[in-house]
Automatic annotation (TrEMBL), chains A, B, C, D:
Name of protein: NAD(+) kinase
GO molecular function, one term: ATP binding
HAMAP family: NAD_kinase
Species of the source: Clathrus columnatus
Annotated spans, Disordered: 29-50
Amino acid sequence: MLSVMKYLKKMYPTVQLLYEPESSLYDDHHPSTSARTELGPNAIDPWSPDSNSAPVDLVITLGGDGTILRASSLFKTGPVPPVLSFSMGTLGFLLPFDIHDFQSIIRDTFEQRVTVLKRMRLACTIHDADGKEIGGSTSAGLQVMNEVVLHRGRSPHLSIVDVLVDGVHLTEAFADGLIVSTPTGSTAYSLSAGGPIVHPLAKALLLSPISPRSLSFRPVVLPETSKVTLMVNSKSRTPAEISMDGHEPSTGFRVLSPGQSVKVQESPYPIPCVRRTSIAGSEMNSERNGDCDIPDGDGRSDDWVRDINTLLQFNATFRNKGILKQIQSSGN
Amino acid sequence: MLSVMKYLKKMYPTVQLLYEPESSLYDDHHPSTSARTELGPNAIDPWSPDSNSAPVDLVITLGGDGTILRASSLFKTGPVPPVLSFSMGTLGFLLPFDIHDFQSIIRDTFEQRVTVLKRMRLACTIHDADGKEIGGSTSAGLQVMNEVVLHRGRSPHLSIVDVLVDGVHLTEAFADGLIVSTPTGSTAYSLSAGGPIVHPLAKALLLSPISPRSLSFRPVVLPETSKVTLMVNSKSRTPAEISMDGHEPSTGFRVLSPGQSVKVQESPYPIPCVRRTSIAGSEMNSERNGDCDIPDGDGRSDDWVRDINTLLQFNATFRNKGILKQIQSSGN
Amino acid sequence: MLSVMKYLKKMYPTVQLLYEPESSLYDDHHPSTSARTELGPNAIDPWSPDSNSAPVDLVITLGGDGTILRASSLFKTGPVPPVLSFSMGTLGFLLPFDIHDFQSIIRDTFEQRVTVLKRMRLACTIHDADGKEIGGSTSAGLQVMNEVVLHRGRSPHLSIVDVLVDGVHLTEAFADGLIVSTPTGSTAYSLSAGGPIVHPLAKALLLSPISPRSLSFRPVVLPETSKVTLMVNSKSRTPAEISMDGHEPSTGFRVLSPGQSVKVQESPYPIPCVRRTSIAGSEMNSERNGDCDIPDGDGRSDDWVRDINTLLQFNATFRNKGILKQIQSSGN
Amino acid sequence: MLSVMKYLKKMYPTVQLLYEPESSLYDDHHPSTSARTELGPNAIDPWSPDSNSAPVDLVITLGGDGTILRASSLFKTGPVPPVLSFSMGTLGFLLPFDIHDFQSIIRDTFEQRVTVLKRMRLACTIHDADGKEIGGSTSAGLQVMNEVVLHRGRSPHLSIVDVLVDGVHLTEAFADGLIVSTPTGSTAYSLSAGGPIVHPLAKALLLSPISPRSLSFRPVVLPETSKVTLMVNSKSRTPAEISMDGHEPSTGFRVLSPGQSVKVQESPYPIPCVRRTSIAGSEMNSERNGDCDIPDGDGRSDDWVRDINTLLQFNATFRNKGILKQIQSSGN
Ligand SMILES: NC(=O)C1=CN([C@@H]2O[C@H](COP(=O)(O)OP(=O)(O)OC[C@H]3O[C@@H](n4cnc5c(N)ncnc54)[C@H](O)[C@@H]3O)[C@@H](O)[C@H]2O)C=CC1
Ligand SMILES: NC(=O)C1=CN([C@@H]2O[C@H](COP(=O)(O)OP(=O)(O)OC[C@H]3O[C@@H](n4cnc5c(N)ncnc54)[C@H](O)[C@@H]3O)[C@@H](O)[C@H]2O)C=CC1
Ligand SMILES: NC(=O)C1=CN([C@@H]2O[C@H](COP(=O)(O)OP(=O)(O)OC[C@H]3O[C@@H](n4cnc5c(N)ncnc54)[C@H](O)[C@@H]3O)[C@@H](O)[C@H]2O)C=CC1
Ligand SMILES: NC(=O)C1=CN([C@@H]2O[C@H](COP(=O)(O)OP(=O)(O)OC[C@H]3O[C@@H](n4cnc5c(N)ncnc54)[C@H](O)[C@@H]3O)[C@@H](O)[C@H]2O)C=CC1
């Protein structure tokens, strides 16, 4: 992280560097006193979501898929600046770039030779049995990038949850839990629960059950304009735990009692993620992203195809001798 | 059918009635000589897709889901008039109305108290190994409402098919077959093959494998702008049979040899289907459908929710005692 | 429950009635003071698993599927007497008889006009990283009738669990959890997790993953002689919670840390369950069950077929108009 | 193949070599005139299933999984000699040995340092609507090693098939087809259709649907003593094609009309397959296999575990960086 900062400082001296003080919760790469010394005392400032400081133009994350989920959770109330994500080792679905290439990629980014993929987010609000909003969510709603989950958690008993779509009762679910996912989240928990793979540019919400007591609860793909409500059924013997992108809601409200509900819909604030293929420079277009000058990609699916094939081992056919031979030769 | 025609003739004497001569292939309700006698000699004329006669303003189908698929196949080259579909007994996904209610529904339709659901169709073209279009498809491409399927058919051997999305190679499938489906088709063959349920208003294409020799070929949801190519792999020991909405392509071209391919993308000509809930009259909007004056519905999901629950028995929870008791009491 | 007891006392005065004092935890039908008054002061005695009182000849359960799981958990160390289970309303997989018919069924049972289905149980022991048994399990091992589950519980992170079969490493599972199930348990949690339906007479163990982070973790059917070990991987960021038949182990040991494991194998003590079809009296055979004189059934599948069709709504075909009509007519 | 024969002739001169004349249908390795010249005129004789020549003591197959299925189909009426199977390149589920190691493996086999895995087969008979056997099947029934399939074949319409287990009606299937599989066959077609992986030593039959028009047709595991009947329903608009181990029945009877049925049960004649792990010599036991002196293995699961992991890529976790790195580095 330090070397990334030093590089930025050297190449783009007028850039104001900020860091997220909590990030040390997630990795060990957070700027130590020595870092500050090396960069100079005012080279880098802490940043907080509520700060009144100048708006952020670019977010850089370093670490696992969790770091970008964390970054997403910090931008709750308005447009999100483009996010440039580096993996520290393993590639990930949300991590197009390897840290070793950081110099050339940062250069491409600053020189606007990249495009972004706008990843849809969901805006969620939590409600009491009488419909009143609770849980202290912000005006724009809690923002999630992967999914909202209701789960029985430690309770030995199934939770019973009613699902409403645009106010119409769709079904009553007896299950370990339910997932409302973005296309981005379709390769996260929903995939484990048996859901389909949804291309990040498809305009859709995904409803997937977790271990439902039913032979016939198939995952459901809804229009992105749908408003989905998950309400703990009054018959449910147990409350249900909410989790958002794998964490409890940032407001700390964690458990829904019977009658309480969470409402989910598309957020007006997607996350513009700097894309791998875009580097080629050949596929710019002219739509602009807020204050930031990185154009949208045109939806070419190279990154995504590569990811589902190498990271998920999608359709690893038994006959795929290429893979097979490697496995054998590696004595695996 | 006769009574429907008589009713139309009586209520709307200036309406020109047409019938599809081939429809007798599909059911027994085709107008006999006696019908013509009863209605008067010029009351009803045969119609063919290529006819130069005046454009059709409304299509009425009577029969199973197959009748509307058939109607769809007749409109190949331009906008499709609204389709009003009656079931002759069983309700179906594509059959919102029961024939017993035909009078009131026809009245509502003529008086524009209904809305339509525009169901996406796919436009397909068939190509030789060198990319040249074959199979005599029309300019707009072959139109399908449910899905295109490539299947090994009677061959004992798996077919090997390459899937390309927007020109990028997604995967090589060893399988009984592959399905590219519309949201409408998601509750047809794709569902049997393990695919998710896609709401008809979701903008998406669905790629589902049929019995793939892989543990990891999950169904894939693509943006509706995707161009999908299915190409029989040159290693494939068998050709693959094409079927469109359950029939061989109307051009009669039925078998793809290794190297040949079918290309699929969203058609510019959806089918405007008269909707059940729209009858309520409360949810009109003002977008007009071509020459026809029936407005689009606003996407409320009542019909669809009812259909997946009653027709598919979606998420029939084991505890669903309502259903259970009925089954028991009926001695089933 | 009182009326069952009174009936037993009247018809079979020499029978010694016992009751399980904890059963009030599970339902409200537990003998009150008034019951004791009515039956006479010594008519009924409390019973506990450790009691030195005379062995039990027949267990009668009243309530949901949970009551028989509870009864199973009380017989830990030797052969189990036949179990006669009545539902108090809903039929269940483990509840062949309706309480309304109790008189005739008790008569059939006492007069040996019934047969039993021996339901396999699993014997489990819990081990430390060095292999030493912990958790205070009894000599015969903890007995489960449905399944043993390791689950991440409330932890937001996936658990990592190694699976060994007969000492050979089968796989490393990143998942919400893992299930080792009996054929009986195949219609319980395992079914929700995507497992196959296993006939109770099939000799097999079933390993099913719960929401695995893998596209290719298919459920596995093992010979009933297999010894399966689930060990929390040392890399696992979270411990895993054990649950047995939906409860924490009766020894109170609930959480496995990395390195700890649970070993599972077929128990020598199945549960002989009095069967519904056997009542017909036509399918006796001569194998005897311990001290009890109820013969084994011959494995005819009538009960099971009825159960999977009516309780699970197995293969409820969309065309199943019988069911459909009932649903519609009931205005559902 | 020639070199295998020469080796056998040299090492074990008293062994009588036979070959299956039809095998040239399956590969190119069939003994040519030159082979006969080299080996000597009487060194090798053709063999046919009906021949009255001396019984076979050992079968050697060379080729893909199909060659052992073919060998199985030749032994229809009695005990099968042990089968030693070599792959000519790709390993397969039924192909434990690589042809490169043939010398040491043949030596181990002749010196009885190997064990066998008895793979269950199914015995099938085909019946008319009135129950009379048709299709000219032999007395012991048609023998299959993987599975029997009923499939709609080229018909565009779903077939409707009734499933009976031990004479009790289990379900009416609207589907592309149905599979009754052995444990061995569980990794073949049934796996593609969504079935579980069944260990070859589990005593069970597996019923798996192919693309059923139902959300709730889960695969079913039955006791190996079950008698399963698949009968084409009289309502079925199409006949159903039978295939056995991927081929039409050897009697040439290929299509079942409505009312006709196929009955399936465990065959008394399993296939003793020489096993890989057994070579270690450490796990012999004393049960003898007919005239052949190779003992049964003790069911250790090493081979199987290796196969499902390397051949099927069972539970290839996304985090499996070992595999991942190889894929990346190979530029795949
Ligand atoms: N059974 C399961 O599969 C569970 C999955 N999760 C997922 O974990 C996510 C939180 O991730 P972390 O904070 O990293 O927790 P974590 O460290 O527990 O990792 C979960 C895994 O999911 C991967 N992941 C995250 N987002 C992804 C995406 N959009 N596509 C593909 N893979 C993705 C991560 O790389 C990591 O391998 C949640 O949003 C949820 O989707 C959470 C609980 C259970
Ligand atoms: N294994 C399977 O499930 C197979 C399904 N099909 C489907 O059959 C369709 C052709 O239908 P028909 O000419 O009526 O043939 P058909 O008479 O063979 O009926 C197929 C069944 O699918 C139903 N169906 C058709 N479209 C549907 C939709 N969009 N949503 C829900 N259900 C639907 C029909 O009502 C009928 O029950 C094809 O487009 C294909 O989707 C075709 C072959 C195999
Ligand atoms: N997501 C899920 O499906 C979950 C299922 N369970 C199951 O609950 C069982 C405990 O049952 P209860 O104490 O009654 O808890 P419970 O009151 O939470 O009920 C669980 C449901 O499973 C049913 N059930 C239990 N055993 C069954 C069997 N062998 N076949 C078919 N259905 C069965 C019960 O009738 C009840 O509907 C556990 O052994 C586990 O199998 C537990 C947690 C989650
Ligand atoms: N969609 C599918 O998966 C289909 C599968 N098959 C299977 O093909 C078998 C016939 O095999 P071939 O004559 O070689 O035809 P084939 O050359 O078409 O090969 C089928 C594939 O199945 C593999 N296979 C065969 N038996 C296996 C087993 N027990 N476990 C794991 N893999 C196995 C073969 O190695 C080959 O890769 C049939 O018994 C049937 O199981 C047949 C048709 C469709």
